[in-house]
């Protein structure tokens, strides 16, 4: 039996700055183009992206396609703010065939003169289980493969943060598992 596991993906992007007065506007356009390409490139059957996913303006087309006609599905983008890099964010669901398992290992508690076993109340003390690590590794590899084929070769990106089933990997979370 398969299930849909929620995830939120943050991808660090490196938009190109323009020259002259309109450099900030061209940076926004470049971020919108990247987000539209990534959103449309994630067509993997094991990933179900939330729709419409935020509207981004398409820079392709002619002047007859003005207004709403220029909007394409895309993901949320934000410029660099302080120490946080420019990012795009995608929310969706990953298909998982594993049973519902708790993400952290069992822990023994001694409470009111009895011994109880259950999930730890402080998840920062234990790493996630191998089931969750294998699922996150599969999801990350699937997303990276889709992004590589969707983006032109000169566009740089990096998976910055991935929240999967309530567990954060990447920035301010666990390290990504290695195959």
Task: Find the CATH topology.
Answer: Alpha-Beta Plaits
The SS-based structural class is: alpha+beta
Q: How many structural domains can be distinguished in the coordinates?
A: 1
The ordered H/E elements are EHEEEEEEEHEE
- Gap from first CA to last CA: 25 Å
* CATH classification class: Alpha Beta
Low-confidence stretches: 61-65
Helix residue percentage: 10-25%
What is the count of β-strands?
10
**What global shape is seen?**
elongated
How would you characterize this protein structure?
This protein is an alpha+beta fold and 179 residues long. The chain has a single domain, classed as Alpha-Beta Plaits, CATH 3.30.70. Helices cover 22% and strands 32% of the residues. The protein is built from two helices and ten strands, in the order βαβββββββαββ. The strands form three sheets. Strands 1, 2, 5, 6, 9 and 10 form a six-stranded antiparallel sheet that branches. Strands 3-4 form a two-stranded antiparallel sheet. Strands 7-8 form a two-stranded antiparallel ribbon. A hairpin with a 2-residue loop joins β9 and β10. α1 (23-41) crosses α2. The radius of gyration is 20 Å and the shape is elongated. Residues 61-65 have low confidence and may be disordered.
Question: Which key features would you list for this structure?
Answer:
179 residues, alpha+beta, Alpha-Beta Plaits, 6-stranded antiparallel sheet, two-stranded antiparallel ribbon, 2 helices, 10 strands
């Amino acid at each position: 039996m398969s299930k849909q596991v929620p995830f939120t993906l943050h991808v660090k992007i490196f938009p190109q700055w323009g020259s002259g007065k309109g450099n900030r506007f061209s940076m926004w356009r470049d971020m919108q183009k990247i987000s539209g390409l990534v959103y449309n490139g994630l067509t993997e059957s094991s990933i179900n992206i939330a729709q419409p996913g935020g509207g981004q303006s398409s820079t392709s087309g002619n002047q007859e396609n003005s207004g709403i006609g220029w909007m394409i599905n895309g993901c949320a983008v934000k410029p660099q703010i302080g120490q946080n890099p420019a990012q795009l964010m995608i929310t969706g669901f990953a298909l998982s065939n594993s049973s519902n398992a708790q993400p952290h290992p069992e822990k023994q508690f001694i409470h009111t003169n009895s011994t109880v076993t259950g999930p730890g109340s402080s998840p920062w003390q234990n790493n996630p289980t191998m089931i969750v690590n294998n699922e996150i590794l599969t999801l990350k590899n699937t997303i990276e493969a889709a992004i590589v084929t969707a983006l032109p070769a000169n566009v740089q990106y990096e998976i910055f943060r991935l929240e999967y089933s309530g567990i954060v990997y990447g920035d301010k979370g666990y390290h990504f598992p290695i195959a």
